[in-house]
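Per reviewer request, we include the raw input and output of the structure prediction for the construct analysed in the revised manuscript.
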Amino acid sequence: QVQLQESGPGLVKPSQTLSLTCTVSGDSITTDNYYWTWIRQPPGKGLEWIGDIPSSGSAYYSPSLESRVSISRDTSKNQFTLQLSSVTPEDTAVYYCVGRVVGVDSWGKGTLVTVSS
C-alpha cells in the first residue's frame, strides 16, 4: 500500500492561488490503474471531491471547481500537485491526497489550508 503526504502553505490570502503537493512513496505514480485524487473537507462540512489524475492521461475535475483547479504530475519526484486559483474564505478546508487502485484507497493525513487576509 502506498503512503501519501501533503505539503504546502497553511495560509493563503484571498484571490491568490492555493498550491499543494502530494509526495507518494511505496509505488510509482505512473503504475497502471492508479488514480491520484484531491479531496477536501471544509470545517463542519462533508468531504468534497476536487479532481483526479490517472497514472497516465488527463485530469478530471469537479464541475463546480473546474474553472479554478489544475492537477498535475511530477514523475521525477513521484509527486502530484493541486493548484486552486482565485481562492476565497470558502476554500478553507482540510485538503487530502488519495491514491486509488482497484478498490483500495490510501489517504494522506491531510493538511489544513486557511484562506484569510
